[in-house]
Design brief:
The protein is α/β, with parallel strands linked by helices. It has helices spanning about 35-45, 55-75, 90-105, 125-130, 150-155, 180-190, 210, 235-240, 275-290, 295-310, 340-350, 360-370, 385-400; strands at about 15, 20, 20, 85, 110-115, 135-140, 160-165, 190-195, 215-220, 230-235, 250-255, 260, 320, 330-335, 350-355, 355, 375. It binds pyridoxal-5'-phosphate.
Length: about 400
């Protein structure tokens, strides 16, 4: 065993008297002790409300919070820390962009392109933001193996296309989408592009300038950080043009009953007290990833994916969904005609934690005419031994499923 796994205390948990095999990392990753300690340390030694305080503790808490903004900036290669907005997670980040972008830039007849493999978080916010406008969502189809049809993508653009919203990595199929190429295409048509990076940031190198995207959204809890914190990156010139999302403290310069002026970036988008401890925890998680090495994490996960993909073939009746050549560590499958929930429940009794259902991607399920899948997803702390336990458990329950 390498030095990564022992850093995660929860992984020694037993379920039903068996060792926990945690393969639900696309839903949320577990947290290393150093992130748990950072939260505890924050509340033990640093807790104060940030930005407004005249006292020492408030200044220190503010410094800790703003340090993480710069860490995130460096981590994703943003031009400036003003481009990093803290939110509650990917969902809130996309809702923020959808609401403000629609308000500022969309009018009746405009079009938004989304892919057919988007998470509901990258579909519904656009529908909500446009509910009082006749703005059409146009959908990029994908092939049986789970690759976006780029020719069809190019053909979807019209002179009314204002924005493209696409996931960097599909949470259901694992496909790594060619977002840099897609950004070029969007910009050639005068459209902006938002990338949902929820499933990418902890697994592959993300450089927002290299991608050339206008917005990049992600959650802390899928990258070894606490729940309750996420990031909305936006290009500075664009953020400057967008109206505020929520009103309240922190996002203003001056308020009177007649008129309010808004704060500078990024504070214009950060109304109210943020989850300071969770932001501090996110900073610690970024340090963990950097010190472990993202290349190394990607190599471990790639090995586990290949190993599991080859091994699962030995289980009778298994069909994998998402077999694109460029793929992250997500393995979606069904066993014969068994309902995914039954498979997940039986696996759980043997200590294996997987996710079952539509994974908030119902259009993908419709595309394959299935109710859902079983999804095993890997993180840096998983091992080949765990994959063996998972496959052995599948072998054991397979006869009960037909
Ligand atoms: N986008 C993708 C691709 C996801 O996988 C998820 C979560 O599973 C989300 C968005 C939503 O993330 P959150 O629930 O952390 O806001």
């Amino acid at each position: 065993m390498n030095e990564i796994r022992p850093q995660f205390p929860i992984l020694t948990t037993q379920v039903y008297g068996r060792p926990l095999v945690y393969l639900d990392n696309a839903a949320t990753t577990q947290k290393p002790q150093r992130v748990i300690d950072a939260l505890c340390r924050y509340y033990t030694t640093l807790n104060a409300n940030i930005h407004r305080g005249a006292h020492r503790l408030a200044a220190d808490a503010t410094e800790a919070f703003e340090l993480v903004r710069r860490k995130v900036q460096t981590y994703i290669g943003a031009e400036s820390a003003e481009e990093i907005v803290f939110t509650r997670g990917t969902t809130e980040s996309i809702n923020l962009v959808a609401a403000t972008f629609a308000d500022r830039f969309l009018t009746d007849g405009d079009e938004i392109i989304v892919s057919g493999m988007e998470h509901h978080s990258d579909i519904v916010p656009w529908q909500l933001a446009c509910r009082n406008k006749s703005v059409k969502l146009r959908v990029i189809p994908f092939s049986d193996d789970g690759q976006l049809d780029l020719e069809a993508y190019r053909a979807l653009f019209t002179d009314r296309t204002k924005l493209v919203a696409v996931c960097h990595v599909s949470n259901t199929l694992g496909t790594i989408n060619p977002v840099a190429e897609m950004a070029k295409e969007a910009h050639a048509h005068g459209a902006k592009i938002l990338v949902d990076g929820a499933q990418a940031v902890a697994h592959i190198k993300v450089d927002v300038k290299q991608i050339g995207c206008d917005f990049y959204c992600f959650s802390g809890h899928k990258m070894y950080a606490p729940m309750g914190v996420g990031v909305m990156y936006g290009r500075k010139e664009l953020l400057a043009e967008l109206p505020p999302y929520q009103g309240g403290g922190e996002m203003i310069k001056d308020v009177s009953f007649e008129r309010t002026t808004f704060n500078d970036l990024p504070f214009k988008f950060e109304a109210g007290t943020p989850s300071v401890a969770d932001v501090v925890g996110l900073g610690e998680a970024i340090d963990f990833i950097n010190e472990t090495g993202l290349d190394r994490i990607a190599a471990i996960e790639d090995d586990l994916l290949r190993y599991a993909t080859a091994a699962i073939d030995s289980v009778k009746g298994v069909k994998i969904y998402g077999t694109a050549p460029h793929k992250a560590a997500v393995l979606s499958f069904n066993v014969g005609k068994a309902h995914p929930y039954d498979v997940g429940t039986l696996l759980d009794k043997l200590g294996v934690a997987v996710r079952t259902g539509h994974h908030c991607t119902q259009p993908i399920m419709d595309r394959y005419s299935i109710p859902g899948t079983v999804r095993a997803s890997f993180a840096a702390y998983n091992t080949r031994e765990e994959v063996d336990l998972f496959i052995a458990a599948l072998q054991r329950i397979a006869p009960m499923l037909s």
